Amino acid sequence: MLFYLSLLAVLASLSVTAIVHLFLRELRLSSQALTTTRRLPFSDQARAGLSSPMFDIDGLDEQGTQEVLDIMRAQRVNFDQARLIRHNQILARNGIDPSGMPLDSKAVTRL
User: Fold this and answer.
1) 85 half-sphere exposure, CB direction, 13 A CA radius
2) CB atoms near residue 71 (< 10 Å)
3) Burial of 82 from C-beta contacts in 10 A (0-12 / 13-18 / 19+)
């Protein structure tokens, strides 16, 4: 009986060690992605949180990746929310409101 209890304790400690190791590895990869400006492969981007069921791509360009990561870090939002914020910022820079209508009063929107 003591043998089985000690075997169970060893298996439990190995399981906990493996789980902690995997968690720390993901955390390290996530923090590396948040601090780097180089282009990450898609698998690393997905592990770093730069993917979602609603938006799956082959990888963002360097500037887009950095902008999304900066928004995620500064505003503490998820990937989809950060993409939406970045998209609205791009629209605003080009004189377009979030609904897609031009902000220019001289623009013809209907005939």
Assistant:
1) 16
2) 19
3) buried
Do 33 and 62 touch, CB atoms closer than 8 A? no
**C-alpha distance from residue 51 to each of 29, 47, 92 (Å):** 14, 8, 24
Q: CB within 8 A of 96, min separation 6: which ones?
A: 102, 103
Q: Give the model confidence (pLDDT) of 55-103 as tens digits.
A: 655 556 778 878 888 898 899 888 888 888 998 998 888 888 888 788 8
Q: What is the pLDDT of residues 33-55, one digit of tens each?
A: 555 545 555 556 666 666 666 66
**Residue the block writes with tokens 């780097």:** 36
